[in-house]
Description:
The complex is a heterodimer.
Chain A: E1 5-8, E2 24-27, E3 34-38, E4 43-47, H1 52-59, E5 64-66, H2 77-82, H3 90-93, E6 100-106, E7 112-115, H4 121-127, E8 136-146, E9 151-159, H5 162-173, E10 178-183, E11 195-202, E12 217-218, H6 230-242, E13 248-254, H7 255-259, E14 265-266, E15 277-284, H8 289-302, E16 310-315, E17 330-338, H9 342-358, E18 361-362, H10 372-378, H11 382-388, H12 396-401
Parallel strand pairs in A: 1-2, 12-14
Antiparallel strand pairs in A: 3-4, 4-8, 5-8, 6-7, 6-8, 9-11, 9-13, 10-11, 10-16, 15-17, 15-18, 16-17
Helix pairs in contact in A: 8-9
Chain B: E1 3-7, H1 12-23, E2 27-32, H2 35-48, E3 53-57, H3 66-77, E4 82-85, H4 93-98, H5 100-128, E5 131-136, H6 149-169, E6 174-181, E7 183-184, E8 199-200, H7 202-214, E9 219-222, H8 225-235, H9 238-241
Parallel strand pairs in B: 1-2, 1-4, 2-3, 4-5, 5-6, 6-9, 7-8
Helix pairs in contact in B: 1-2, 1-7, 5-6
The structure holds flavin-adenine dinucleotide (FAD) and NADP nicotinamide-adenine-dinucleotide phosphate (NAP).
NADP nicotinamide-adenine-dinucleotide phosphate is lined by residues 8, 10-13, 32-34, 37, 59-61, 86-89, 109, 136, 138, 181, 183-184, 186-189 of chain B.
Amino acid sequence: MPGVFLPQGNARSYGDSCMLHEGTVLSTRFMNRFIAFDGETGIIRCEAGVTLAEILSVVEPQGWFLAVTPGTKFATVGGAIANDVHGKNHHVEGTFGAHLTQFELLRTDGSVRLCSPTENAEWFAATIGGLGLTGLITWAEFKLKRVSNSAVNVENIKYQNLADFFALSQESEQDFEYTVAWVDCLASGDQLGRGHFSRANHARVTQPKPAPSQHTLTIPVDPPVSLVNSISLKAFNWLYYHRQREKRVTQTTHYDPFFYPLDHVQNWNRMYGPKGFLQYQCIVPMEHSEAAICELLRRIGRANYGSFLAVLKVFGDVPSPGLNSFPRPGTTLALDFPYKGAQTMQLFDQLDEVVVQAGGALYPAKDAHMKPQHFKRFYPNADQLESFRDPGINSSFWQRVMEPST
Amino acid sequence: MKNWIVIGATSAIAESVCRLWSTRGYNLFLVGRNADKLESVKQDYTVRGADTVFTHVLDIAQLDKHQACWEQAKAAMGRIDGIFIAHGTLPDQKRCEADFNHALTEININATSVLSFCTIAANEFETAGSGHIAVISSVAGDRGRQSNYVYGSAKGMVSLFLQGLRNRLFKRGVMVTTIKPGFVDSPMTADFEKGGPLWATPDQVAAGIVKSIDKNRGVVYLPWFWWGIMQVIKSIPEFIFKRLSL
Ligand SMILES: Cc1cc2nc3c(=O)[nH]c(=O)nc-3n(C[C@H](O)[C@H](O)[C@H](O)COP(=O)(O)OP(=O)(O)OC[C@H]3O[C@@H](n4cnc5c(N)ncnc54)[C@H](O)[C@@H]3O)c2cc1C
Ligand SMILES: NC(=O)c1ccc[n+]([C@@H]2O[C@H](COP(=O)([O-])OP(=O)(O)OC[C@H]3O[C@@H](n4cnc5c(N)ncnc54)[C@H](OP(=O)(O)O)[C@@H]3O)[C@@H](O)[C@H]2O)c1
């Protein structure tokens, strides 16, 4: 096959890692058949274009669940592998790749490799978190986890500041499979980092909750200006923080709104207006976590920029099998910002300084600005991945970050 | 739980229909010409919840093998509740104009083979006093147009034939559903410019097909707005229509 290609799943990545400006995108949209599912062992095999939503619709009624799920169920299996995605249970289950038993890799020269931890192990490692560069994953097999029903027991705790967040994370690590916090980015001083800490487990024997209504909220048109400005952000953050009067609220809900809140607002990104928005997701190692997150939030606060969604989570030390996976022990902060041109880029540069100094990393799945010199520090195995790259495959992201730095 | 034969089971639209039926635990007898593809969809339907899935390799142009195919389905599933016919090809109109043998091949696939299966099913269902015949025809069969009248006339023949069957079998409790999709984004239309409100996905059309069969509908346009479009197209007087380049 002549030319340059890039496999693409459902294009749920935010930046340019699922794009190729000069070349052909190979959509896996029609590669969406299941191959086998063993209801006894929970091992499932399917083509790479199957979405996590389709998997859940088949396996959840039979008492199985994804061992790891990102915050959107519209990601495909291929995309979940290529970004080695993580979920709210990273401290328990590690990444998506940690549950893979095998997959098939097709290269543009027509060669096919079966990859597993024991067969073609180096290709297995390079492809997990390999950003689609090593070849097209045609099908994959992975392990699911047992659940007794579709409900999750969730506890939401309003907390005062960053120190509280770390204390809650540590306290919850043992007894809660899922932990995550939403942060009020606009709080400062001794309230810096305040927010809601959410921790949850799959319900054991309670009644299953009925599926949430399929009714979705749609942002139907592109508003001429961003609906997200500093006034609406202040109001949103304030309201969100104070939405719960009690310090602690527990509830049992269906898994869908708990794991996939944004999937219910179709085209939610439109609310940022015609210029759109950028994501910023970093991780900083545990030993510098508190100081670094504190500094990041301060810089965001000082820029008077705000962020609609800011999410904080402590990752565990379950190793990622991927050569270039983003998750590693530490604390991850994910934010999204309405795009304001140079102002946004300046803020990102300031945030980068903190991440680099702390020895952290940025997440390619959500990146559109990472500098080549930083990328190589964040991903010391990048050159190795380059050596596994299919010469017929490339991405706009890869071209950007692998450009020789000046 | 129901037992259905699906002819052209690897078509994109049939695949979407079978996925929906699989979640209901149907038994399926899949007929198609490509053994690998049949095996792959069989696995998919099994994971999605189909009870038992059988496959049968057949080039549908071989009319003399249709009866044997039907007998095998009966032997495999015991009782047959319905037959869903979905195979088809989109002929190269220009080639059909230049070469009638080619046109005949296309007519055999899109019309004759369909009538053959319908005849076998109609006789069996008539004797049994129950059964459902559901066939994908097309809006293209509603009016002949210069750009694809060979395909259109084959589909038109299917639609008329089914109309007659419905009339014949109604008193015997046998249902006949004629499905007329508009533009569907499937491998058949791979070469078309797509996008815009007139194009539907196989999943959307399949949801309409399953619902129409459940409700024992006679003729359905999918999506529904094609009914309106075709009313307009059919009502254009011939002396004007012949000047249009549709
Ligand atoms: C609302 C929302 C919440 C999210 N939450 C999280 C989260 O909590 N954790 C997290 O980790 N991520 C999260 N993400 C990011 C998302 O999970 C990843 O970007 C994921 O990779 C998207 O999958 P996709 O199928 O859309 O892949 P795409 O975005 O289309 O592609 C992603 C990468 O995978 C490659 N790829 C896709 N298919 C194949 C294949 N068959 N073979 C080889 N390479 C392939 C592409 O080349 C590309 O490099 C979130 C995204 C959204 C929109
Ligand atoms: N797509 C549209 O816009 C559209 C609109 C109106 C009506 N329709 C009708 O919808 C039906 C399904 O089409 P589709 O859109 O789903 O397209 P499709 O995916 O191309 O399906 C056509 C199927 O017919 C099978 N087939 C063709 N010739 C055959 C033969 N001689 N023997 C056995 N199988 C044969 C093909 O088998 P292989 O898989 O082996 O190739 C293929 O599975 C067709 O009847 C079509 O006319 C389609």
